[in-house]
């Protein structure tokens, strides 16, 4: 076994997350799928850091976590305010900009 | 140096398969709360994989920030959103699910071929030299020298996110809703609303149920004595029958 296996695991998780974004309708579950993709990217970054023998990959992974936290806070606030006005958290119902 | 220890192999296979199971469970679970819990499982496994991957600091941060903070925030929002948390089954776009699955498989094939071409015998340097002073010390050395500007920008981002969340979540009470005492009094004594205290349920009733209306002087049940949050249902004959408690 080589560290390549970690990259394969990361790609599997990323694919599952991307498919989930396409399949699911609930905005909160979509957000969770995005988090899964970010986590898969983090795993790849940590593995790259180990392959290259420098800590830069881990630093970038750390920044990804910070940005993900900020993104989740704002995204969930948006979902809450949409839910408050539309009484629904399905992405199909928020289609007012379509017309 | 290219091959990892047996213990790490065991850890990888166990944690990796559990992580994939958790990810699949998250996508396939009908209930959004179950999805969140499956994702917590995946994130915990990834945190342990970071530790195995000689990134103990990131492993701890993963568990604290992701499973501890972010996923609990998700669960809080799910509680606020309530029963709408499950997915709707109505397809707005016809064939969207099938197309999504096809696209997912296509993406998997794309990534798989790319990986198959590029991977193989990747040389691994390892982090023993970089982690010689300790992982946290090494990260701190980089974070406060080479990446110090990005670190400062991060603080601006976090403040902006906090303010943005407050602005988005704040509800201003509409001016029309604020009523003074005189208006309240007029509303109370308006024709059609009863100003007196309501009778309790079950007054002069022959059952103990709070769903039994209190009797009016003419013997009829008064609807106003029943709380509107009680589910409306018909009493069965056995429930409506006399209980033997009356004289």
Helix content of chain A: over 70%
What is the radius of gyration of chain A computed over CA atoms, rounded to a whole number of angstroms? Answer: 17 Å
User: What class would the helix/strand composition of chain B place it in?
Assistant: mainly alpha
Helical amount of chain B: 55-70%
Residues in β-strands, percent of chain A: under 5%
The H/E string of chain B reads HHHHHHHEEH
- Outline type of chain B: elongated
Task: Give a short account of the largest sheet of chain B.
Answer: 2 strands, antiparallel
List the total number of helices of chain A. 3
Overall pLDDT of chain B: 83
**What integer is the average pLDDT of chain A?**
88
Span of the ends, CA to CA of chain B:
92 Å
Q: Say what oligomer this is.
A: heterodimer
Low-confidence segments of chain A, given as residue ranges, are none
**Could you give the distance between the termini of chain A?**
54 Å
Spatial order of strands in the largest sheet of chain B: 1-2
Explain this structure.
- The complex is a heterodimer of chains A (99) and B (247).
- By secondary structure, chain A is mainly α.
- Chain A has three helices and no strands.
- The longest helix of chain A is centred in the C-terminal third of the chain and has 31 residues, at 56-86.
- Chain B is an all-alpha fold and 247 residues long.
- In chain B, 55% of the residues lie in helices and 2% in strands.
- In chain B, strand 1 and strand 2 (221-222) form a beta hairpin.
- In chain B, helix 1 runs antiparallel to helix 2 and helix 2 (32-52) packs antiparallel against helix 3 (56-81).
- Chain B is elongated, with a radius of gyration of 31 Å.
- Chain B starts with 5 loop residues before the first helix and ends in a 7-residue tail after the last helix.
- The model of chain B has no long low-confidence stretch (mean pLDDT 83).
- At the A-B interface, helix 1, helix 2 and helix 3 of A face helix 1, helix 2, helix 3, helix 4 and helix 5 of B.
């Amino acid at each position: 076994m080589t560290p390549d296996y970690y990259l394969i695991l990361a790609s599997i998780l990323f694919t599952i997350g991307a498919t989930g974004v396409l399949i699911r309708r609930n905005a909160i579950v979509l957000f969770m799928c995005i988090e899964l993709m970010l986590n898969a990217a983090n795993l790849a970054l940590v593995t790259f850091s180990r392959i290259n023998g420098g800590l830069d990959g881990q630093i970038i992974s750390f920044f990804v976590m910070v940005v993900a936290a900020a993104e989740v806070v704002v995204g969930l606030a948006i979902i809450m305010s949409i839910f408050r006005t539309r009484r629904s958290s399905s992405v199909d119902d928020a289609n007012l900009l379509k017309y | 140096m290219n091959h990892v220890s047996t213990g790490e192999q065991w850890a990888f296979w166990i944690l990796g398969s559990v992580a994939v199971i958790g990810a699949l469970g998250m996508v396939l679970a009908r209930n959004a709360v179950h999805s969140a819990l499956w994702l917590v499982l995946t994130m915990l496994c990834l945190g342990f994989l970071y530790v195995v991957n000689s990134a103990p600091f990131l492993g701890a941060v993963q568990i604290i920030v992701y499973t501890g903070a972010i996923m609990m925030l998700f669960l809080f929002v799910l509680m606020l959103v309530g029963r709408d948390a499950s997915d709707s089954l109505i397809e707005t776009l016809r064939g969207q699910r099938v197309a999504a699955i096809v696209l997912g498989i296509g993406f998997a094939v794309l990534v798989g071929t790319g990986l198959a071409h590029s991977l193989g015998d990747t040389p691994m340097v390892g982090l023993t030299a970089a982690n010689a002073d300790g992982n946290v010390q090494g990260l701190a050395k980089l974070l406060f020298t080479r990446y110090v500007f990005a670190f400062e920008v991060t603080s601006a981002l976090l403040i902006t996110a906090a303010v943005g969340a407050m602005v988005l979540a704040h509800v201003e009470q509409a001016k029309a809703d604020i009523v003074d005492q005189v208006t309240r009094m007029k509303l109370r004594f308006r024709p059609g609303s009863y100003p007196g205290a309501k009778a309790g349920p079950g007054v002069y009733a022959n059952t103990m149920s709070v769903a039994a209306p209190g009797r009016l002087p003419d013997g009829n049940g008064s609807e106003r004595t029943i709380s509107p949050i009680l589910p409306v249902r018909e009493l069965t004959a056995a429930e409506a029958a006399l209980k033997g408690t009356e004289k």
